[in-house]
Every structure is written in structure tokens, then in C-alpha cells.
Fold SBSPO protein.
Amino acid sequence: GLCCPGRDPTCLSAGRRPDGSTGPCYCDQACARTLDCCHDYAQACLVIPCVVSQWSAWSGCTEPCKTTYRVRIRHIIQEPRNGGEACPALEERAGCVEYWTQQGTECQQSLIPALITTGGFGKARKKRAAADGNERAGYCVEFQLVAIMPGCLHSHHSYTHWMHYLREGHTVCVECQQPALHSVSQHCYGDGTGSQKYQLLHWQAVGNHQCKGSWRRIRQLDTCSCPSVHSFLFI
């Protein structure tokens, strides 16, 4: 009945050894290396590996409205014995974001990727709003470009040439105008409202799904002051 883990000199019995001799013999795991096991060690102390259950379903994100993680777990069905294979990890995590709270309301703007296009369309927008007589004052947000996908340089259509001016490290201005200005929140989606300082936010260029990247919000202004090649619009 002795089956001891590791090397244990007290895990001792008196009986027959595999070579047929009699005398002290051992029932610890080390006996297989030292060749002094009792003759029935292999049968009495079978190696039993760890057995675990299937993974559970993934949980929801640990916190809504944040870039966080979800979890799935499994449990031990059989503990390892007699030097059997150890149990694997019982918890696994994966990154996730939920854009809605548990109450069903939309999360803060900072999580929503900004859709942008060239600022050249801004004049036409303002003319249309003025003609309708319902123009609302917009605003401008300055961002510092952190990362840009190579796809921005592979745009060869005339309407995507503006993407070639996107450069990492540059400051750009993105204007929030009608009709992108949300009538209730008075913000444009993806403008970074509510984001923490130095938080990485995401943007996507309209007209080329391969042109996207990340930036950091610097500040919000009443009007934009960037050069035209570095001025954009929220969609």
C-alpha cells in the first residue's frame, strides 16, 4: 500500500525485489532510477495523470465599457498520482470589449473607433447645413497619430490620396460637424470623450478598410488649426 511521491527513504518495505533478491525495497518514485523498487511497485503504484473537465463557456467581459478580458474555467476530475502528469492551467483569459452596459445603455465614446475622411468634404457639409438653417456649432479634436497600418499607403484611387499624408507621430485635427454630430450626446462617435490620459484610441479611414490605426487624444478645441493635409472629419 505504499506509493510515495519523489524520493522518500522512509517509504520502505521488506520483500522481494525485481531481480529476485529479498530484503529492504522501496515504493517511492525514485526507486525506478535507483533500481531498488519492490517487485510489485509498477502494478501497485500505477502512474495516474491529471484529468480535467472540458472548458466552460466564456464569461462576459469582467467590466463593461473597458478594454478588459473574459474568462473560461475547467476543474480537476482526477488528481495526478505516482508521478503522473501535472494538471494544466484551470483558467484561461482572452481580451474583449463590451460596448454596452448591463443596463443596455451605450458605453462612453472612447471605446468606439472613429471613422474619418478628408477635411475637404467639410465645406460642402457647412453649405448644406446653412441652407437648411439648422447649423449647429461643431468642434475640433487634436490627436497624435501613434500607429498606422501599411494599407494607408496602398490606396491608389483619387479619393484615397489623402490617406498618404497620415504619418506616425504627427498631430492631426479632426472636426466634428453635422450630420456626424449626434443630436443627443452632442458628440461625434469615436472622438475619445471620456478617455483617460494617454489612452490609445482607434480610427478607421473611410474608403479603404485596410487603412486604420491608433492615436491619442490631445485636446478639444472650438476650431481646427492644423494644415489642410492634416485636417479630417468624423463620419
